[in-house]
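A protein record in our archive is deliberately plain, so that people and models can read it alike. The tokens are whole numbers drawn from a learned vocabulary of local backbone shapes. For reference, a complete record is included directly beneath this paragraph.
>
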Amino acid sequence: MSMIEAAKKAREASIQLAAMSAESKNQALEAIKEALAANVEAIKAANVIDVENSKKEQVAEPILKRLKFEEEKVQDVCAGIKSLVGLEDPVGKVQLQTELDDELTLTRIAWPIGVIGVIFESRPDALVQISTLCLKSGNAVLLKGGSEAKETNRILFNIINEASIKAGMPEGWIALMESREDVNSILAMDEYIDLLVPRGSNAFVQYIMKNTNIPVIGHADGICHTFVDESANIEMAIDLVVDSKTQYVVVCNALETLLVHENIAKAFLPKLKQALSEKGAVIKGCEKTRKIIECEVATEEDWKTEYLDYILSIKIVSDVEEAIAHINKYGSGHTDSIITENNVNTKIFMNLVDSANVFHNASTRFSDGFRYGFGAEVGVSTSKIHARGPVGLEGLLIYKYQLEGKGQIVADYASGKKCFKHRRII
């Protein structure tokens, strides 16, 4: 099937899918979960091919880590689907209702966007999360994964497609694109695709935005910060920084730059260095940092870098205002956290840091659709329109207005024969 044919079928399927009942969609999700669990060995075998091919091509280690889709990952995505089934169906939810006049009622309801094109990195688990979120939210989806995960993506798509169609979902609601040429084809399909979600490097996301008329939401780099204030609990700060940096380094919500108040630096940094060294992490520091602990030199370029590796850059600052200024200058608007016991500084930080996710005394790794209770995510948006932060079910919905009347005509209101009441019901 050609790309244009797939897009047309997705458009047709999206109309049917939007009107599907919550029960029907949940049954399809359950069927997908069972099919994935029943095909673990086949999925693992396909993934081994991708991993071995990538090793031969000397793919970078961070990409290899994202690429691996072993039994534990299959169990994780199945748990995510189970969580998704348990969420309330957002489609058709009444957001606003107004009585314009007697027996003339306007209602705004949540409604699927339609057809969503998602271009994502070499993470097979992303294919499962994205497709099931789109199904639950009533959207058709066109998927383009990284070429490194070609075999894994293909088998996952086949399992999801077959299981969902057998469960009653409309044919064509999901399609998989495999060639690089398909990306450019997608960009020109504003007639069929309602929203694009690109996931990848900053250059890639910018390329997508500049070469399509389709609305785009997404994020580029995940340059996340944590600021350790002078009143921070040192043991808590060590735990949070280590978790933010090393719990899983190849994700966009991992910590990349640490800012430390000058009044706590001498007590904090040696202990932090010891904790990070136990995890195999390398520290790069500003001049003030290097006077306290031995570490590599951090340059201006480091403040702009998403390492996706066991590397942390550290800068010592004089106060919360300097920390905020640094974050707003070098950050990517993804996730930034403050560790402090000072309520005033907490409020200043939470209000003035211009990011989609701003935390207090919490690991940046909590910035995630599943952990937020959104039923995973199709991506993280650092945009300021429509959806911001982890894009889960609600981020895949827009709304429509429905008007119920009894034969009223505008002429009566224009002539003054009738008057609007505009009484808010909901």
User: Anything to note?
Assistant: The domain at 3-216+393-401 is CATH 3.40.605.10 (Aldehyde Dehydrogenase; Chain A, domain 1). The radius of gyration is 24 Å. The CA atoms of residues 260 and 316 lie 5 Å apart. The chain has a mean pLDDT of 93.
